[in-house]
Automatic annotation (TrEMBL):
<keyword id="KW-0804">Transcription</keyword>
<feature type="modified residue" description="4-aspartylphosphate">
    <location>
        <position position="85"/>
    </location>
</feature>
<dbReference type="GO" id="GO:0003700">
    <property type="term" value="F:DNA-binding transcription factor activity"/>
</dbReference>
<dbReference type="InterPro" id="IPR009057">
    <property type="entry name" value="Homeodomain-like_sf"/>
</dbReference>
<protein>
    <submittedName>
        <fullName>DNA-binding response regulator</fullName>
    </submittedName>
</protein>
<dbReference type="Pfam" id="PF00072">
    <property type="entry name" value="Response_reg"/>
</dbReference>
<dbReference type="InterPro" id="IPR018060">
    <property type="entry name" value="HTH_AraC"/>
</dbReference>
<dbReference type="GO" id="GO:0000160">
    <property type="term" value="P:phosphorelay signal transduction system"/>
</dbReference>
<dbReference type="GO" id="GO:0043565">
    <property type="term" value="F:sequence-specific DNA binding"/>
</dbReference>
<keyword id="KW-0805">Transcription regulation</keyword>
<feature type="domain" description="HTH araC/xylS-type">
    <location>
        <begin position="187"/>
        <end position="285"/>
    </location>
</feature>
<dbReference type="InterPro" id="IPR011006">
    <property type="entry name" value="CheY-like_superfamily"/>
</dbReference>
<dbReference type="InterPro" id="IPR020449">
    <property type="entry name" value="Tscrpt_reg_AraC-type_HTH"/>
</dbReference>
<keyword id="KW-0597">Phosphoprotein</keyword>
<dbReference type="InterPro" id="IPR001789">
    <property type="entry name" value="Sig_transdc_resp-reg_receiver"/>
</dbReference>
<keyword id="KW-0238">DNA-binding</keyword>
<dbReference type="Pfam" id="PF12833">
    <property type="entry name" value="HTH_18"/>
</dbReference>
Length: 292
């Protein structure tokens, strides 16, 4: 499959026109309200086998012939679950998973890798980057259905939990609504935060980007959104950290670095302030929630 690097900011940029790529969506009016499953596989036989098996079980499957085409489909409408042909040494698939895991809109989408062989090394690498489950080729329809159903049930539990917790603050929804609906400097500021919150950015960086003084930007942002720039940055970082804690086996220290904290102690302090516990305890609690 094509290898390339995907940045978080690419996920919700204006999508590449669908006519440019061979994305096949099988229409099934009987199951219009069923779960949407995206199957990303360069091999037509495997891809079509998955699509047929899923359709017969009442899902709404869509096929993509490459990671780039899959990204385009995700941009248009994030699916409920993704099945992806993968070689764990391929940068395209890995960077796609990492990008999905670090964006609040796609963080808890279950991802299933299709592997040639379920070796210990391949499984370990997949889990580390945030893959939820793996299946070996050739695909067995019943096994595919069991894995998909299990992952969707876990996702439903996570959705219910996050709806009652600050892991994904309601303010995040406002951020994306604001940044998507206007070209104002405040919208540009929010988009800049969304695109760069995993980097060590500060108020001064955002102010410089939009051409405002830090004090004026802070006043306007607080007036319009009820949040300061720093609060937006922290909330997005914490939401991303929660996703990585739930969906990967990365160390807490590594996650702190991934979400823009150069000082691990500072990350621990911010996390405890928001959630009242340490990142590791929070992770253990989340894993208990989604464990079979």
């Amino acid at each position: 499959m094509t290898q390339y690097s995907i940045g978080v900011h690419q996920l919700f940029q204006p999508p590449i026109p669908m006519k440019t790529f061979a994305v096949k969506k099988q229409e099934n009016h009987e199951h219009q309200t069923s779960k949407r499953i995206l199957v990303v596989d360069s091999q037509p036989i495997t891809r079509d086998t998955c699509l047929l098996a899923l359709r017969t079980k009442g899902f709404d499957p869509m096929g993509a012939e490459s990671t780039q085409v899959g990204l385009n489909a995700i941009q248009l409408e994030p699916p409920d679950l993704i099945i992806c042909d993968a070689n764990t040494n391929a940068s395209g698939e890995i960077s796609l998973v990492q990008a999905l895991r670090t964006h609040p809109n796609t963080a808890i989408i279950p991802i299933v890798f299709l592997l040639t062989s379920l070796t210990r090394s391949a499984l370990h690498k997949s889990v580390l980057i945030g893959v939820n489950a793996c299946l070996a080729r050739p695909i067995e329809a019943e096994e595919l259905f069991q894995v998909v159903s299990s992952q969707l049930k876990k996702q439903a539990v996570l959705h219910e939990h996050y709806a009652r917790s600050p892991a994904y603050p309601s303010a995040l929804s406002s951020l994306y609504q604001i940044s998507d609906n206007t070209d104002s400097p405040l919208s540009q500021a929010l988009q800049f935060i969304s695109d760069n919150h995993t980097q060590p950015i500060a108020l001064s960086d955002v102010a410089q980007f939009v051409g405002y003084s830090p004090a004026y930007l802070t006043t306007q942002m607080k007036k319009q959104t009820g949040q300061t720039i720093q609060q937006w940055i922290i909330q997005l970082r914490m939401a991303t950290a929660c996703s990585l804690l739930t969906n990967t086996n990365s160390s807490v220290e590594g996650i702190a670095s991934q979400v823009g904290y150069q000082n691990t102690t500072h990350f621990f302090r911010q996390f405890r302030r928001l959630y009242g516990t340490t990142p590791q305890v929070w992770r253990n609690q989340r894993w208990q929630i989604v464990s079979p």
